[in-house]
Design goal:
- This protein has helices at residues 45-50, 79-90, 104-115, 135-142, 150-154, 165-180; strands spanning 2-9, 18-25, 30-35, 63-66, 72-77, 97-100, 133-134.
- By secondary structure, the protein is an alpha/beta fold.
- The model has no long low-confidence stretch (mean pLDDT 89).
- The chain is built from 6 helices and 7 strands.
- The radius of gyration is 16 Å and the shape is globular.
- A hairpin with a 4-residue loop joins strand 2 and strand 3 (30-35).
- The chain has one domain (2-183): Nucleotidyltransferase, domain 5 (2-Layer Sandwich), CATH 3.30.420.10.
- The longest helix is centred in the last third of the chain and has 16 residues, at 165-180.
- Helix content is 32%, strand content 21%.
- Helix 4 (135-142) runs parallel beside helix 6 (165-180).
Length: 185
C-alpha cells in the first residue's frame, strides 16, 4: 500500500518539531493530525502565516474523529496520542511504502513519531522499507522540470490549502500518479 505523506514543521533545523501530518493512501484512506505540543518559539513569521494559519483547528482543544471504518481519521492532540493513532491506523495495511516530496525532514519526523524519540531498530512487519521513497528524486530521473512548482506541473491553480499537510500529501499523490507511476511499475 502506497501512503503519500507530508509533515508541516517548525523549520529546517535539527530540533524542528511537527505541526501537522497528512497521509493519503493510494485507495483514498486519509489521516490528518495537528500537534498541540510543537515548539511555538521556533515558528517564524512565514510559518505562522503559511502553516499555522492553514491548520483546520486553530485552538488547543483536543479533537478526534474516526469514520468507524478507519478510512478517515482526524486528530488534534499531543505527539504521544498522535503516535498511538498512527500506529493503530497503519495496522490495517500490508506492504506499506511511504512516498513524500523532498522527504529528508518528513521521514526523520515520521520515524521519530513512530519510535517516540527512541531509535527505530525494527520497523513494523507491514513496512516494505526502512526508508521513504521520494517523488522529487523520481521526478529528477524522469522529467527535466522536476524543480517546477507542483501546482504548475499538475496544471492546477495555487490555492490557500497549500502548506496544509493533508492537502500537500494529496498533491504528492497526484504528482506520483501523473509522473512516477507509469515509470515505476
Amino acid at each position: 500500500m502506497k501512503i503519500f505523506f507530508d509533515f508541516e514543521f517548525t523549520g529546517l533545523t535539527m530540533r524542528t518539531t511537527p505541526i501537522s501530518l497528512g497521509m493519503v493512501t493510494e485507495d483514498g484512506h486519509k489521516f490528518y493530525a495537528e500537534f498541540t505540543d510543537y515548539d511555538k518559539e521556533q515558528c517564524d513569521e512565514w510559518i505562522n502565516e503559511n502553516v499555522i494559519g492553514r491548520l483546520l483547528y486553530n485552538d488547543d482543544v483536543f479533537y478526534f474523529e474516526n469514520d468507524e471504518t478507519n478510512k478517515k481519521i482526524i486528530i488534534k492532540n499531543d505527539k504521544q496520542r498522535i503516535s498511538d493513532s498512527v500506529h493503530e491506523w497503519l495496522k490495517q495495511f500490508k506492504n506499506i511504502e511511504f512516498w513524500g516530496d523532498c522527504v529528508a525532514y518528513d521521514w526523520l519526523l515520521m520515524t521519530d513519531l513512530l519510535g517516540m524519540g527512541k531509535p527505530m531498530r525494527k520497523f513494523p512487519n507491514n513496512f516494505i522499507s526502512y526508508q521513504a521513497f521520494d517523488v522529487f528524486t523520481a521526478l529528477k530521473l524522469n522529467i527535466s522540470e522536476f524543480k517546477k512548482n507542483r501546482h504548475e506541473l499538475l496544471e492546477l491553480d495555487k490555492n490557500e490549502s497549500q502548506h496544509n499537510s493533508l492537502y500537500d500529501a494529496e498533491i504528492t499523490k497526484m504528482v506520483y500518479d501523473k509522473f512516477v507511476a507509469k515509470n515505476n511499475n
